From TrEMBL, chain A:
InterPro entries: ABC_transp_permease (IPR001851), ABC_UrtB_bac (IPR017779), ARM-like (IPR011989), BCAA_transport_permease (IPR052157). It is found in: Cell membrane. This is Urea ABC transporter permease subunit UrtB. Keywords: Amino-acid transport, Cell membrane, Membrane, Signal, Transmembrane, Transmembrane helix, Transport. One of its GO terms (cellular component) is plasma membrane. The chain crosses the membrane at residues 239-266, 298-318, 330-352, 372-399, 466-487, 493-515. It comes from Noviherbaspirillum sedimenti. Residues 1-19 form the signal peptide. Belongs to the binding-protein-dependent transport system permease family. LivHM subfamily. The gene is urtB. GO terms for molecular function: transmembrane transporter activity. The keyword Signal applies.
From TrEMBL, chain B:
CDD domains: TM_PBP1_LivM_like (cd06581). The keyword Membrane applies. One of its GO terms (molecular function) is branched-chain amino acid transmembrane transporter activity. One of its GO terms (cellular component) is plasma membrane. InterPro entries: ABC_transp_permease, ABC_transptr_urea_perm_UrtC, LivM-like. It is found in: Cell membrane. The gene is urtC. This is Urea ABC transporter permease subunit UrtC. Keywords: Cell membrane, Membrane, Transmembrane, Transmembrane helix. The chain crosses the membrane at residues 12-32, 124-148, 155-173, 203-224, 250-272, 327-351. It is a multi-pass membrane protein. It holds the Pfam family BPD_transp_2.
Length: 531, 361
């Protein structure tokens, strides 16, 4: 408490040491000229003193009054104060409230938020600086300059330098403008572009909006720098979103790579297994919300094993009841599993309703990291990228390092030989299908964190999943990974120029053409489905 | 399979069914509603729709049942034929649309001033009829040429046809592609000057559909029982052996694939004026797969089977969706599974088996 008091005293003292508000500054406030009033507000703000803050607050709260002689007073509870000195004064006769129109109110708000630049609190200063980055006006230049002088934090200082430069772009002083344009050469703020372009435009009378030739040359240079930087940011953004989409495709397709790729089953119900995984996540969230509200954020971790077990069980049941009668007849598995998919969809619709259910990101997955200025990488996408890589690694390990994986590969390569040496092929089939389905469930958990969870969730991914597996080459884990990330990147780099739908169509056409060249996909492998 | 293909009872059945079907619109027109012999307009429209479906299933059977190529993209050809005809019907509305412009309402909505180039001449009925044949035909030919040339077959072919259909659906769903977006073409008023809602016009459309269905059945029968048909069945049973003998399966497959797409397009074109709407959901992957089910349920590789299948599955659907709307997908799903597991030859196969059992007994 004592410390705080000392701090306040020091603060008050240091501010108080500055000159009180000059009456000449105050006079325009009572006048009629709107531009002069706004300029006065900004100049008062630039004083950055306690009195200035008090005065602006008074103006904001309609507590500022003007006497007939043009002198300005703050009136609180029928007590008048002299804003210049802060002293109580006798209430002058005939004083009237100063009217504040919307434009002035906006200027006051900007000035007050700008004053936060001088706050002792670093976060508050940072927030104020980034707010100003979006909207700095020339009028705020004095305040910004003042803050810049005092600022010691390098991050905020760098930010403020850009803000000051932005504000100075419209300064009447050509030298200031030139310096500002030069300073902005390192900025990556896309909103500067129209301002800079505006400076290069011609007025109706043929003269340039920016009269100085040297400044214009510098503007052109800064613009090209800015464009290059924005293009780089966009490139990195596309790269990231491409990887993110690729990881989603990978999670959706990985289970299919096992059931279709290794076993030769066209599992049209694969999408519905994804959906079941997503609904399991939803149920886990409900359970945690109702019974362990304190540990709600952990529901996702519980959902992973739950979704795996549920979907693997569903898969095993399907394999035992329907699919095992159809081995070696892929077209028939297609029809039967399509029937299964219809039934599963209708089942979910009957139980949970046709509407989407709400699955929220746990708090540790919301938000994101900001890189390169405007680019934000959200945590949920980053987590899913790593999760996808983890699942791939796990599948690789299961197929290559475990006894089950050995059997799976053996049955895939030569079923009869495997049978002869005592591998229980029926059991391996069941386990393999269960594994593929379980991985679909894990994919469903991830999908529930990115998009809507509803009965149609699976339908949206089934064609993409097949495309990934076909492109990657049947039975090839590496091919599936490369195809998923490749398609993800291709999609995200096409999207900005041609739009989402055309990008998707282009990719489908690309795959059709690619299959022309390599009918077996990226990597060919002999498996059950090969003649 | 015998060279006569259809047995004597089958021929009799075809003739009797054709006559019965032809009678429906006559009964609808000749007797007033309420009369015991009157057939409701709804029933006539429903049967007309089923006949279009039957034609699509027949076309699918030609490639799947006889040549062993499973297409999951026939919904696309069906819809393209439908859109080609729909274009004509759309322009035949004239200025009777909501905005009373010479442009269709959705184009007025997009603020277009002129018809795009691909709509040129579509005010001519015969040009549109040529499009009905050419658009699915050319697309199927080009797609098939590339696919068959690189020997894409089996499930790969199925998946790629599905992807193609999906891509077209996305394209047609867009408003700015000039196909009416989500709503497609609807609100048709007249065809060749005749008012579409008129009972006589509807009866004529119905009878044209019946004749074309019968015609395509006979055409398909002629093809599969000719030498060409033998080659097609050889493609289905052992394509590599056929190649070793010296045939190039490419052109045989391409011919039957293109023909099938054209037939499917014609079915779509007949469907549109009778149902009154064509929209991109006809291209949804689910629709194409349902066509496969019609063929599978009736019995593939028998020409009559798909027609029976289309009628029975859709009849079942009409009844089910009215009586138990929530259960239809369960029933359809179960039908898929049961047919693939227990009735690989479909209804027709079951009938044959029963007859054989009786003869043996």
């Amino acid at each position: 408490m004592k410390k705080l008091l000392v701090l306040i005293w020091l603060l008050a003292h240091s501010l108080g040491a500055m000159a009180a508000i000059d009456a000449a500054l105050l006079a325009p406030l009572a006048g009629d000229d709107p531009d002069a009033r706004i300029e006065a507000v900004n100049r008062i703000a630039a004083l950055a003193s306690d009195d200035a803050v008090k005065l602006l607050h008074a103006l904001q709260n309609d507590a500022l009054y003007a006497a007939p002689d043009g002198k300005v007073y703050i009136v609180e509870d029928d007590q008048a104060f002299d804003p210049a000195s802060g002293q109580k004064v006798a209430m002058p006769d005939g004083i009237d409230g100063i009217s504040v129109n919307n434009r002035l109110r906006g200027a006051v708000e900007d000035a007050l938020s700008g004053l936060k630049l001088l706050s002792e609190n670093r976060t508050e200063r940072l927030a104020a600086a980034s707010e100003l980055q979006k909207s700095a006006s020339a009028a705020q230049a004095p305040l910004i300059n003042k803050a810049l002088e005092k600022e010691t934090d390098p991050e905020i200082k760098a930010m403020l330098q850009l803000v000051a430069a932005t504000a100075n772009l419209v300064s009447p002083d050509a030298a200031l403008r030139l310096a500002a344009v030069k300073a902005l050469a390192t900025s990556s703020n896309a909103s500067l572009k129209p301002v800079l372009l505006g400076m290069l435009e011609k007025n109706p009378d043929g003269s340039y909006a920016e009269p100085e030739e040297t400044v214009r040359v510098e503007v052109v240079r800064t613009l090209s720098d800015l464009n290059a930087r924005l293009a780089r940011t966009e490139f990195v953004g596309n790269l990231f979103y491409g990887v993110s989409l690729g990881s989603v495709l990978l999670l959706a397709a990985l289970g299919l790579a096992i059931t279709f790729g290794l076993m030769g089953i066209i599992n049209m119900a694969h999408g519905e297994l994804l959906m079941i995984g997503a609904y399991t996540t939803y149920l886990c969230q409900l359970v945690f919300r109702n019974y362990f509200p304190l540990a709600l954020d952990a529901y996702l971790l519980a959902a992973l094993p739950a979704a795996f077990i549920v979907t693997a069980t569903v898969g095993i049941v399907l394999e035992r009841t329907v699919i095992r009668w159809l081995y070696g007849r892929p077209l028939e598995t297609l029809l039967a599993t399509w029937g299964i998919s219809l039934m599963l969809m209708q089942l979910v619709r009957t139980i949970f309703g046709a509407q989407n259910v709400e699955v929220a990101n746990p708090s540790w997955m919301s938000g994101g990291v900001t890189v390169m200025g405007s680019l934000v990488l959200s945590y949920n996408r980053i987590v899913i990228i790593f999760f996808a890589l983890f699942v791939v690694a796990a599948v690789w390990a299961i197929l290559n390092k475990t006894r089950l994986g050995l059997f799976v590969r053996a049955v895939t390569q030569n079923r009869r030989m495997a049978d002869c040496v005592g591998v229980s092929t029926g059991r391996v089939d069941m386990m393999t299908f269960g594994l593929g389905s379980g991985i679909a469930g894990l994919g469903g958990v991830a999908l529930s964190q990115l998009g809507n969870v509803g009965p149609d969730l699976g339908q949206g991914y089934i064609i993409d999943s097949f495309m990934v597996v076909v492109l990657g080459g049947v039975g090839q884990l590496a091919g599936t990974v490369i195809a998923a990330f490749g398609l993800g990147e291709l999609n995200k780099f096409l999207e900005p120029s041609v739009g989402a739908v055309i990008a998707k169509i282009t990719i489908l056409v690309f795959i059709i053409i690619f299959i022309q060249k390599r009918p077996q996909g990226l990597f060919a492998l002999k498996g059950r489905s090969v003649e | 399979m015998s060279s006569s293909l259809f047995s004597r009872p089958a021929w009799i059945g075809i003739v009797v069914c054709t006559l019965l079907l032809a009678l429906l619109p006559v009964l609808n027109l000749a007797f007033a509603p309420g009369h015991s012999l009157h057939v409701s307009t709804y029933t006539v429209a429903l049967v007309g729709k089923f006949m279009c479906y039957a034609m699509a299933a027949l076309a699918l059977d030609l490639v799947w049942g006889y040549t062993g190529i499973l297409s999951l993209g026939h919904g696309l050809f069906f819809a393209l034929g439908g859109y080609a005809h729909g274009m004509y019907l759309m322009r035949a509305i004239g200025r009777d649309g909501v905005y009373q412009s010479h442009l269709p309402d959705f184009m007025v909505f997009l603020d277009w001033k002129e018809y795009p180039w691909y709509w040129a001449f579509t005010d001519n009925f015969w040009y549109c009829m040529a499009l009905v044949v050419l658009v699915p035909g050319v697309l199927a030919f080009v797609f098939g040429y590339f696919a068959f040339r690189s020997r894409i077959k089996g499930v790969y072919f199925s998946i790629i046809t599905q992807a193609m259909t999906f891509a077209f659906m996305l394209l047609f769903f867009r408003n700015d592609t000039g196909f009416g977006g989500n709503n497609g073409f609807t609100d048709f008023k007249r065809i060749l000057g005749f008012t579409i809602p008129d009972a006589a016009t509807k009866a004529t459309l119905y009878l044209v559909t019946l004749l074309l269905l019968l015609g395509s059945l006979l055409l398909c029968r002629w093809i599969v029982s000719s030498k060409l048909g033998r080659v097609l069945q050889a493609v289905r049973d052992s394509e590599s052996r056929l190649m070793f003998i010296g045939y190039n399966p490419l052109w045989f497959k391409l011919f039957v694939w293109t023909l099938s797409a054209v037939l499917c397009g014609i079915a779509g074109a007949l469907y549109v004026p009778q149902v009154g709407i064509i929209n991109p959901s006809e291209m949804s992957p689910a629709n194409s797969i349902e066509m496969v089910i019609w063929a599978a349920v009736g019995g593939r590789g028998s020409l009559l089977g798909p027609i029976i299948g289309a009628f029975s599955v859709n009849g079942l659907k009409s009844w089910f969706t009215a009586a138990f709307p929530d259960l239809w997908l369960f029933a359809l799903g179960l039908l898929f599974i049961l047919v693939t597991l227990f009735m690989p030859q479909g209804i027709l196969g079951l009938v044959k088996k029963l007859r054989k059992d009786r003869e043996a007994a």
